[in-house]
Write a structure and sequence with these properties.
Blueprint: H1 10-16, H2 32-55, E1 61-66, E2 71-75, H3 84-96, H4 102-112, H5 124-138, H6 142-156, E3 159-160, E4 165-166, E5 176-179, H7 186-196, H8 199-216, E6 226-229, E7 236-240, H9 252-269, H10 272-286, H11 313-326, H12 332-349, E8 369-372, E9 377-381, H13 384-399
Antiparallel strand pairs: 1-2, 3-4, 5-6, 6-7, 8-9
Helix pairs in contact: 2-3, 2-13, 3-4, 3-5, 3-13, 5-6, 5-7, 6-7, 7-8, 9-10, 9-11, 11-12, 11-13, 12-13
Length: 403
């Protein structure tokens, strides 16, 4: 094996007994025109995100923007999306090196820091790893490391060994609710094991992922949104949805969370069952007859009003980012399809249909995402996580150019 292909920390592997994984020798050639579009998008994102700094009041985080009323909706630091805004600021800064973004990023990190002790949410990966994890990657700091470790400890308190999973939503004592979104929070636990040498975080992440494969996925490799376990026996009590069209449907963002999460699982463990799972999810998505030609999925793959159903830019952005990592690990034919599909998604999201005009859309970069349609909230609006994963996908595409 070519040592250049090994993407692991050898010293850690010797200590922890963790496997290395090797990237496939696939070569993907980025399109010059799309690279130019991405560079322009980053400049535009820089300008857009400066709009927020003038709009937010102390303690507020951007949540969404209602185009019809022109109202910016905000949250406090406890909202599950609070980490995306500072994370996106930092990712944009990494591309543009615009120092004017940094005071706002630091201000938001300071507001967010208290959530490291929040044991009432499973979303600490979203909240803290997308923000402090990004900050620590760009400029490693003992303070950032401390916040991340405390966040991992808080997340680990929600693990139930009888169920073999991390609790997502607090509910009545007889219910233990786990949603597919929780796959996205495991990356924080893997980081904690690498940072400390404590394998307990790693073991929790692996156990949760294995339980998810067993109970969340159907024969066609689509996912239920919510599994309700019995907290004492681990038995499955219900398989249902909260944000999808129906219990047996395929909520688009949930499918994207699974794709991304199992790609991370393979990266962090080298266990081929996770690579197989990620590939199976990708095939469900990309070969689905209800995936539109422009690759921006309907909010649910089995919505009752396709082709008039709302599209979800957030699901598309998550898919693109995940595919641009997965293509590095899988076979040549699948890898090329994943790379091409991600490029198509980025192209579509870069058009005026989805990308905001300068100074418009309340500061958000993308339009037309769907948060919780059954509840009638955040429907066809911009959302912070759509922007976050769009910027991440563009960065990942650029990385193939070696620049």
């Amino acid at each position: 094996m070519n040592l250049k292909n090994i993407i692991c920390n050898t010293a850690l592997l010797l200590v922890m007994g963790l496997p290395c994984i090797a990237q496939q020798k696939n070569t993907f050639k980025p399109q010059a025109a799309l690279l130019a579009t991405i560079n322009k998008n980053m400049v535009d994102a820089d300008a857009q995100y400066k709009v927020f700094a003038g709009e937010l009041q102390p303690g507020q985080f951007p949540k969404n923007f209602e185009p019809k009323t022109g109202k910016l909706e905000t949250s406090n630091s406890g909202w599950w999306c609070s980490g995306f805004y500072p994370g996106t600021l930092l990712n944009i800064y990494e591309e543009t090196r615009d120092e004017k973004l940094m005071p706002e990023a630091r201000r938001m990190l300071n507001l967010l820091a208290k959530e490291q002790y929040n044991t009432h949410t499973h979303d600490l990966g979203f909240m803290m790893y997308c923000s402090f994890g990004t900050a620590n990657r760009l400029a490693p700091s003992p303070d950032y490391k401390s916040v991340l470790l405390n966040s991992a400890k808080s997340l680990a308190t929600r693990f139930n060994p009888k169920v073999g999973a991390i609790k997502s939503w607090d509910a009545k004592p007889s219910d233990f609710l786990v949603i597919i979104d929780n796959m996205m929070n495991l990356e924080l636990l893997f980081w904690a094991t690498k940072a400390t040498g404590d394998s307990s975080y790693y073991k929790i992440a692996v156990t949760h992922a294995n339980t998810t494969i067993k109970n969340h996925y159907r024969a066609d490799h689509s996912s239920y949104h919510v599994i309700n376990y019995h907290p004492e026996t681990g038995a499955v009590q219900q398989k249902k949805t909260a944000q999808g069209f129906a219990d047996g449907s395929a909520w688009a963002r949930g499918q994207a969370w699974g794709l991304y999460g199992f790609t991370v699982m393979y990266r962090e463990t080298g266990d081929k069952q996770y690579l197989e799972q990620a590939n199976n999810i990708a095939r469900f998505l990309l070969n689905n007859p209800n995936l539109p030609a422009d690759k921006i999925p309907y909010w649910d793959f089995i919505a009752d009003n396709i082709p008039n159903a709302l599209r979800d830019a957030s699901a598309a952005a998550i898919m693109a980012s995940a595919l641009l990592e997965l293509c590095r690990y899988t076979g040549k034919a699948d890898g090329q399809q994943y790379f091409n599909t991600a490029a198509d998604i980025i192209k579509t999201l870069s058009t005026p249909q989805y990308k905001s005009a300068p100074g418009a859309n309340g500061g958000f970069l993308l339009q037309h995402s769907v948060g919780h349609l059954p509840a009638g909230t955040e429907v066809d609006v911009p959302l912070t996580y759509a922007d976050y994963y769009f910027v991440e996908a563009m960065k990942r595409y650029k990385a193939f150019a070696g620049k």
